């Protein structure tokens, strides 16, 4: 099993040292092979594969025994050129692309992109109230589902499979709500420049209220299962430590930053979509470790539930209110409706443009084929995503397509802390540290 | 009506936001747009085919700026004068409430350091670095954009550095903001901008041996036609465009 020449590695890949192909044989054999060499130093290539459901991440670990002396990340396996693609589609079509970046926080991707466009269009104040409330509602539901996956996969990675199964059980409830409201479980493209795509369907508020009531019963299960669980705490406490100075220097935001006790949350400090009018608290912890980040995520789900409840209350009083700007040069013309053969353009709209108003037909045609023009300039309106500051740098040259859109994804930035968090620790703690960052590779690689 | 001013000038003073961009001598056209519907040749029967419009970004702001923008600009001026780089900032743009400093590339490290360390600036966090490619902006083809956040003062600024395509070098800010490490690698990967002083400037998203830099405007999207029921739809970069 240890040979001087690895048949799988071409000569260019390894220039020094001996190559060990580790493929499921006994550790004794590997150790024997290592004993021939004097040093304890081993370079382990972990991946590229799913360390969990975070995506395809490759870790290059240098070990002394079981201690990590150097940890590096190899990323790019999920690079799909979304930013490039967006330059070839209209501003509205861009939403369909960016929703697929960080697939666990689609509404946040859409929101920051649309807020940037709205700032360039100078229509930030014209976005109707109901659209803002629906955005907040969807973003907070999304935060719950994203944190549930973070906790679930984090649990799975340390062997706590029950945490995984109950986490995904609750996430499914959120996805059911998304399906009811937007028509899709993921990749919604629901938040659009100027508002949202659709009004709330009938019965949605009841479903949301039922969900809130159920979550109030279910969330304590996580607390009972994990908070004081000695095995859980033994794996998480003091693992992946990163203090405030480290976080700021490395640009970390979100739960990792808040686990150092610094209450930085863009929803409070730089509110958007009317967050300043909701009653909620910023959750912090003071241990700056993986356990603190877990507790913050748990507590933030409670806060999100509070916001969802307030948003649902407001929506009850906003029945029939517009969900898209009144400006017909920007607002997407058609509304969807359920017909006998599935969802499609609303028949009322078809009747209007085909039979009643030629201007409406022209507007529909121009907006759908050409799109609207956005004044030249650049904007950056970040939002507080589940993983931290998520922002789209939107550049327009005055045309109907984005000239350049760059997403500052928190996963990309936060993943840089892998080496700081893991070096000097045990190899088993690398996984816990990365899970506490909660990177989503779709967002890292874009 | 005692003042001896032309009606144009009075109108401009009353509502400066309506000023045409060309009034400002500092405005640079970064490109031109031809026609109105993007089609070329005989396909364009609209009558607008001969239209040539400059692509103009918001012009430089006149000092003093308003509110905290002026505080930041003045503090930066003072800090740069102390640091011995008084002309590091080429100009300031304020657009839609966002403050942008156009920085000369030689002055970038001094500006970054001043913005981070000066007590009245305190931009502790670098949100990100990215690039924008303007192939028609002669001598300033590649723009590198830094977004900075001050948690102390709850403010954001943007730094923009323009470098020529022929010499795409600018100093790295990793020494000041360690988080710039991966961001600069990504900008290098996507635009071919070389950050001098970066600890290991290698590709990050594309494979190591990838030719070209995908986010440049002269790099094709590389789509293939989509066939459906006998018809075929050309890739997006070969369809009729409306930009």
What does this structure look like?
The complex is a heterodimer of chains A (446) and B (243). Helices cover 47% and strands 13% of the residues of chain A. Chain A is α+β, with helices and mostly antiparallel strands and 446 residues long. The mean pLDDT of chain A is 86. Chain B has four helices and eleven strands, in the order αββαββαββββαβββ. In chain B, a hairpin with a 4-residue loop joins strand 6 (142-150) and strand 7. In chain B, helix 2 (68-83) crosses helix 3 (108-117). The longest helix of chain B is centred in the N-terminal third of the chain and has 16 residues, at 68-83. Chain B: Residues 1-13 have a biased composition (Basic and acidic residues). Chain B: It holds the Pfam family Complex1_30kDa. Chain B: Residues 102-223 form the NADH:ubiquinone oxidoreductase 30kDa subunit domain.
* Strand content range of chain A: 5-15%
Most extensive interface: A-B, 50 and 50 residues
Instruction: Sketch the major β-sheet of chain A.
Output: 4 strands, antiparallel
Low-confidence stretches of chain A: none
Mean pLDDT across the residues of chain B is: 83
Count of individual helical segments of chain A: 18
Strand order in the largest sheet of chain B: 3-4-7-6-5
Structural class of chain A: alpha+beta
Q: What is the helix content of chain A?
A: 40-55%
Structure summary, number of beta strands of chain B: 11
* Beta-strand content estimate of chain B: 25-35%
Helical percentage of chain B: 10-25%
Order of helices and strands of chain B: HEEHEEHEEEEHEEE
- Characterize the quaternary organization of these chains: heterodimer
Please specify the SSE layout and strand pairing:
The complex is a heterodimer of chains A (446) and B (243).
Chain A: H1 27-36, E1 41-49, E2 57-64, E3 67-74, H2 82-86, H3 93-98, H4 106-121, H5 129-157, H6 161-182, E4 191-192, E5 195-196, H7 204-227, H8 230-236, H9 244-249, H10 255-258, H11 266-269, H12 290-316, E6 336-339, E7 342-345, H13 347-356, H14 358-370, E8 377-380, E9 383-385, E10 388-396, E11 404-408, H15 410-414, H16 418-422, H17 427-437, H18 441-445
Antiparallel strand pairs in A: 1-2, 2-3, 4-5, 6-7, 8-10, 9-10, 10-11
Helix pairs in contact in A: 4-5, 5-6, 5-12, 5-17, 6-7, 7-12, 12-17, 13-14
Chain B: H1 7-14, E1 29-34, E2 52-56, H2 68-83, E3 89-95, E4 98-103, H3 108-117, E5 125-133, E6 142-150, E7 155-163, E8 169-171, H4 180-191, E9 194-196, E10 226-228, E11 231-233
